[in-house]
User: Which sequence fits this backbone?
C-alpha cells in the first residue's frame, strides 16, 4: 500500500543532508511511495527540488537559539504537516523542533534516528544530546539506530520497549568508482573532538615520519593543545577551516587511505564517505566500527589503543604495489556500495515503516 511519508532533517550537517536527500530522491524515483522532504533553507549538498521539498529558515543546531522561538513559523509548519495527513514522519537528526512536530503531527507514525546512544564524554553537547535522546524516546513511536551493538544499551539506558527499536544502517549517494591517485597521503577527516583520537593521531604521525598526513576538520577548543603539537610536525598538513562539499570530495580522492584512530565511536560517516570515494580505511576497533569495516577486505581493523600496531599497519599499506592498492580501493568501494548504497537502504527503510 502506498504511504505518504515526510522525511525531516533540520541539520546543517552535510552528512545528514546527503542521507535524507538521497532517500527522498530514491523514493521519488521509485514512485511507490508519496514522499515529501522538510529541511533547512540553506542546504550544503545538492538537492532535487520540487513542490514536495519544503525548505525552512529553522535553527541550525539542536540547542536553544533565537530562531528556536519563532513560534509563528513553527506553528504554521505544524499546521501544514497536519493538513497533509502523513502516514509516516521520519526524523534523520535530533533537533528541538522535532519535539513539537511529534506532539502535534496528528495520527502520523513517527520514527526518530538516534546516532549516539551513549553521548561522547568530553563533547560540549553531551548533556543536550542525552536530554534530547530521553525526549524523543518518550515522544516518538519508534527509534532507529545505525548499529546493532547499542540496541540493548538503548533499551536499558532509556527504558524503551524492544519492539519500538529498529536497526537501519547509514547510507550515501554513491558515484561511480573513483580511480586511485597513488599519492602516498592519508586522510584524517572530521571535527576534531576528544573522542576522535587526535592524541593517538599525534603519536602515529610521529611514528610515521615518511607518511604525509592531511588533517581536515574544525577543532574543538579542548583539543587545541594537541592540534598545535600536530602543526609542528613536518609530515602533517592541517586545514581547520570549513570545507565545502567539493573540497571534501577532493580531500578523499587525493588520499590513499582514510584513518580513524578513534578512542570511542558509535558508528562513523567518515568510513562510508571513504568507501563512497573508493578509499580503504584503517581504524581502531572501537564501538561499532567493527560493523563497518571488514578486516582485510574494506580496510584494516587495529586493536583499540595500539598506536604502534596502527603505525606499522599504515606503513605497510602505503607501500602496496599499485595493482594491489587498486584492488584494495575496488574492494572497499564494492563493500561500501553493497552495504551503504542508496537503493538497498531505501528498500530496508520501506520494510521498517511497514
Assistant:
Amino acid at each position: 500500500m502506498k504511504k505518504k511519508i515526510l522525511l525531516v532533517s533540520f541539520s546543517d550537517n552535510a552528512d545528514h543532508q546527503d542521507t535524507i536527500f538521497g532517500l527522498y530522491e530514491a523514493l521519488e524515483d521509485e514512485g511507490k511511495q508519496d514522499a515529501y522532504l522538510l529541511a533547512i533553507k540553506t542546504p550544503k549538498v545538492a538537492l532535487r527540488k520540487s513542490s514536495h521539498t519544503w525548505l525552512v529558515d529553522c535553527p541550525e543546531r539542536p540547542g536553544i537559539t533565537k530562531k528556536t522561538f519563532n513560534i509563528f513559523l513553527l506553528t504554521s509548519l505544524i499546521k501544514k504537516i497536519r493538513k497533509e495527513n502523513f502516514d509516516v514522519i521520519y526524523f534523520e537528526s535530533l533537533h528541538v523542533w522535532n519535539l513539537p512536530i511529534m506532539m502535534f503531527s496528528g495520527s502520523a507514525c513517527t520514527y526518530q534516528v538516534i546516532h549516539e546512544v551513549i553521548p561522547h564524554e568530553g563533547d560540549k553537547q553531551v548533556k543536550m544530546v542525552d536530554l534530547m535522546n530521553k525526549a524523543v524516546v518518550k515522544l516518538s513511536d519508534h527509534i532507529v539506530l545505525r548499529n546493532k551493538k547499542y540496541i540493548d544499551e538503548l533499551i536499558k539506558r532509556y527504558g524503551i520497549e524492544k519492539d519500538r527499536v529498529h536497526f537501519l544502517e547509514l547510507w550515501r549517494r554513491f558515484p561511480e568508482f573513483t580511480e586511485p591517485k597513488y599519492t602516498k597521503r592519508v586522510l584524517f577527516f572530521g571535527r576534531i573532538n576528544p573522542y576522535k583520537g587526535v592524541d593517538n593521531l599525534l603519536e602515529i604521525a610521529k611514528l610515521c615520519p615518511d607518511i604525509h598526513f592531511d588533517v581536515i576538520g574544525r577543532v574543538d577548543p579542548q583539543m587545541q593543545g594537541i592540534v598545535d603539537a600536530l602543526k609542528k610536525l613536518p609530515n602533517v598538513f592541517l586545514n581547520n577551516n570549513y570545507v565545502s562539499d567539493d573540497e571534501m570530495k577532493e580531500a578523499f580522492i587525493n588520499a590513499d587511505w582514510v584513518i580513524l584512530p578513534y578512542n570511542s565511536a558509535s558508528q562513523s560517516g567518515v568510513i562510508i564517505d571513504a568507501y563512497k570515494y573508493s578509499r580503504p580505511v584503517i581504524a581502531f576497533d572501537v564501538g561499532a566500527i567493527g560493523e563497518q569495516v571488514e578486516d582485510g577486505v574494506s580496510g584494516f581493523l587495529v586493536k583499540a589503543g595500539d598506536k604502534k600496531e596502527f603505525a606499522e599497519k599504515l606503513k605497510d599499506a602505503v607501500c602496496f604495489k599499485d595493482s594491489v592498492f587498486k584492488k584494495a580501493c575496488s574492494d572497499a568501494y564494492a563493500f561500501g556500495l553493497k552495504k551503504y548504497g542508496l537503493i538497498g537502504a531505501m528498500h530496508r527503510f520501506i520494510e521498517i515503516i511497514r
